[in-house]
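RECORD TYPE: inverse folding
INPUT: structure tokens
STRUCTURE:
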């Protein structure tokens, strides 16, 4: 009996860790909104609500960025057994109620706390950053999955930040044309984030409408099947609810935090593909490889972002779930986690100085003159 049970215990422990312990690290994405609660608590108790309106930004792009760097990288590869572990999926699903609660709380605070204009600006930026991190990160994971339930869950999250078109353009525009001149989400060599951002938002929104119109025409479908129409109507519904419950201030807040959220998304796109290019072979571009996306395996930020920064594997194998994404040493490596890189991108001369020497010559773009 002892002989037969001896190998059983290690297997049980392995199953326990694989199915329950390992997924728990990704629960960190669900505690991102807690920085909003701390902001209000500290702001009220200290009598400085305008300062603490910026608290979520300070936490996410300050404290966590430093801790992420100190903890360092995780270059380990996922165990094959993680593919069918249900808890990973439920963590992604749980972002929808977590985001809705955070958004309602943000609206309530904006319309009840006596902020000055600087405090109101800080709260918009803070909640927008939380929405961009929580809702859009999870939406990005879900829209790539084969089930309609997951795709629609991702669509609802995107509609809650008025960027439903990302579901269409990202899948059928960005992933097809990534690291080519045809992709507005792939920043060119020498292009600043301030030049990139408005162009990316405008092009990607317009292109989503074009892609959806082409799909309807191709399949001879009516406008009732138009996904862009559906997601934009849902965004309108969110806006109406914000207005009815919280008045004009609530409507302004909802729209403004949405702009911050989807701008944060496009800045991350800037970081993920800056200066990298797929070479053209005749009339077609080479296939997407890990070297065409920037990789970052800083441990803490990947736990918060559902392994989003293992972006090289995501583009090479878009159907992989976040827990399966691998580290590729041959991919260009960012010198920090996403929090640090977003801050760095805000200072173009410093960004160029740090990033340009790290771009592999084989995928380096020709410098553009219009920046």
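DESIGNED SEQUENCE:
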């Amino acid at each position: 009996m002892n002989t037969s049970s001896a190998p059983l215990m290690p297997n049980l422990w392995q199953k326990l860790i694989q199915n329950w312990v390992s997924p728990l690290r990704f629960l960190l994405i669900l505690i991102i909104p807690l920085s909003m609660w701390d902001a209000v608590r500290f702001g009220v108790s200290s009598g400085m609500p305008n300062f603490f309106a910026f608290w979520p930004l300070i936490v996410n792009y300050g404290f966590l960025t430093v801790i992420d760097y100190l903890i360092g990288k995780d270059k380990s590869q996922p165990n094959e057994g993680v593919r069918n572990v249900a808890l990973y999926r439920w963590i992604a699903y749980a972002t929808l109620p977590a985001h809705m609660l955070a958004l309602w709380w943000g609206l309530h605070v904006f319309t009840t706390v006596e902020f000055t204009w600087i405090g109101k600006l800080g709260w918009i930026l803070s909640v927008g950053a939380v929405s961009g991190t929580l809702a859009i990160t999870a939406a990005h994971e879900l829209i790539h999955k084969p089930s309609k339930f997951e795709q629609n869950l991702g669509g609802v999250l995107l509609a809650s930040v008025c960027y439903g078109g990302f579901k269409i353009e990202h899948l059928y525009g960005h992933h097809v044309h990534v690291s080519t001149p045809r992709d507005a989400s792939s920043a060119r060599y020498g292009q600043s984030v301030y030049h990139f951002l408005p162009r990316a938002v405008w092009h990607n929104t317009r292109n989503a409408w074009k892609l959806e119109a082409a799909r309807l025409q191709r399949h001879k479908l009516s406008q009732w099947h138009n996904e862009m129409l559906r997601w934009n109507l849902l965004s309108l519904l969110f806006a109406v609810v914000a207005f009815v419950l919280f008045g004009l201030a609530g409507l302004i807040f909802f729209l403004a935090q949405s702009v911050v959220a989807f701008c944060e998304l496009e800045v991350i796109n800037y970081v993920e593909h800056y200066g990298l290019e797929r070479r053209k072979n005749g009339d077609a571009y080479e296939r997407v490889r890990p070297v065409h996306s920037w990789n970052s395996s800083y441990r803490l930020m990947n736990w918060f972002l559902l392994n989003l920064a293992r972006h090289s594997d995501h583009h090479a194998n878009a159907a992989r779930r976040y827990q399966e994404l691998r580290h590729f040493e041959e991919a260009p490596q960012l010198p920090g986690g996403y929090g640090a890189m977003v801050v760095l991108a805000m200072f173009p001369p410093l960004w160029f100085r740090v990033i340009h020497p790290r771009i592999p010559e084989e995928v380096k773009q020709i410098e553009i003159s219009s920046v």
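NOTES: The chain is about 65% helix and 0% strand.
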